[in-house]
Design a protein that fits this description.
The protein has 361 residues and is mainly alpha-helical. It contains 14 helices and six strands. The protein has helices at 47-59, 78-91, 96-113, 125-133, 139-158, 185-193, 199-208, 212-216, 245-252, 270-287, 296-308, 313-320, 325-332, 337-353, and strands at 2-6, 26-31, 37-44, 223-224, 227-232, 238-242. The strands form two sheets. The protein has a three-stranded antiparallel beta sheet with strand order 1-2-3, with helices on one face. A three-stranded antiparallel beta sheet has the order 4-5-6, with no helix packed on it. α2 packs antiparallel against α3 (96-113).
């Protein structure tokens, strides 16, 4: 007996595999009269046309359709699935930061499943919701983690370990963007006053706009006089940023360790080096009584100073290394001086158009 069902696309949002009104691909599964087990796509979206194909298959008149091998009787465990997924991530040559986040996700999945439901098919929608409730992330971080979870279960569906992703019906949390808050001049003065041996690192964050992870692994050969190499654009054009003489002198006086300027300890692992600098900066913020002190605010200070000086947001986006100017606008649009000046001028222009009129009583 053969059965039709749909494998819903991500954009569809449906979870009922027998739903007929969408346009997702129709698959057939079951055993034919001769005992042959089949499961394959019909390459159709019309349920009515799929019914005709099914009848042809049952009658033995259809041919030329790709047959998917019978699924393995051994169920795939969660640990096996996460291990193969991490191997796939490694084969894709992802960045260390991205790979580290996938490794953390795999660790959380394995810890959550443990011995209670060790098999992949045991992950129902309800259990996935319980898994998400266990996260201690903010809305934005939880949304990113949900994207990585979707990627994992998509990998499982593509390998035919499960038929439908249990994450398909989950919606991302609502994120309310908070305004970017750079350091004030008074805060920067207190930070520099208590910087101590971290002065060169702090000034590098402030005057290059680097993320803390990039600055922590800054190589000595990335500094050329009073210019610091940031990255290479997709067009092959390198992007540099000039730095003040005070920072140039500090960087020139640092003895590189293994080719790195700010390496702390012996480890060259990105997460280890970054965490060590986070702890060091936390001590500086505490000593300077900086409320809400965070390394990323140095990057915000760099961007806002440029925008308020009249630098076009397109140029600031290039220096920050954003993938799109939309990312820059989402975070820094309120600080664009030229845009604010244009808005004020448009408002003033309306004053000239509105002339007072005498109205008879």
């Amino acid at each position: 007996m053969l059965t039709l069902y749909r494998r819903h696309l991500k954009a569809c949002g449906q979870t009922d595999r027998y739903y007929r009104r969408c346009k997702c691909p129709v698959w057939v599964e079951g055993t034919k009269d001769d005992g042959e087990y089949i499961r394959h796509t019909l390459k159709l979206t019309s349920w009515e046309r799929a019914e005709e194909k099914k009848r042809e298959l049952e009658a033995g008149t259809a041919s030329g359709l790709p047959v998917v091998p019978t699924p393995l009787t051994k169920e795939v465990t969660v640990r096996e699935a996460t291990a193969k997924f991490l191997a796939e991530c490694e084969a894709r040559n992802l960045s260390e930061a991205t790979s580290r986040k996938y490794r953390l996700l795999a660790k959380l999945i394995n810890a959550f499943s443990n011995s209670r439901f060790p098999h992949l098919r045991d992950f129902s929608v309800e259990r996935i919701r319980d898994f998400r409730k266990s996260w201690k992330d903010g809305p934005r971080a939880a949304g990113k983690k949900l994207e990585r979870l979707r990627a994992f279960f998509k990998f499982c569906v593509e390998n035919q370990w499960i038929e439908v992703s249990p994450v398909a019906s989950l919606k991302a949390p609502l994120v309310k963007d908070k305004p970017t808050m750079p350091f004030t001049r008074e805060e920067m003065a207190r930070i520099l006053e208590h910087a101590g041996s971290s002065l060169a690192f702090i000034l590098t964050l402030r005057y290059t706009g680097m993320r803390i992870s990039d600055a922590a692994m800054l190589r000595a050969d990335s500094v050329n006089g009073n210019r610091v190499f940031l990255y290479t654009q997709k067009t092959g054009v390198p992007v540099h940023v000039p730095v003040p003489d005070s920072l140039t002198n500090l960087l020139a006086g640092i003895k590189p360790v293994g080719g790195y300027l700010f390496l702390r300890g012996e480890s060259t692992r990105l997460d280890t080096c970054t965490d060590l600098w986070r702890r060091q900066l936390a001590k500086v913020f505490k000593a300077g009584e900086i409320k809400g002190g965070h390394p990323h605010r140095f990057r915000d200070t760099f961007a806002v100073e440029l925008l308020q000086s009249g630098v076009p947001i397109e140029h600031v986006s290039i220096l920050l290394g954003h993938s799109s100017i939309k990312v820059t606008e989402r975070h820094y649009a309120p600080w664009v001086k030229t845009r604010q000046d244009m808005l004020e001028e448009e408002v003033r222009r309306t004053w000239e158009q509105q002339k007072p009129r005498l109205v008879k009583a």
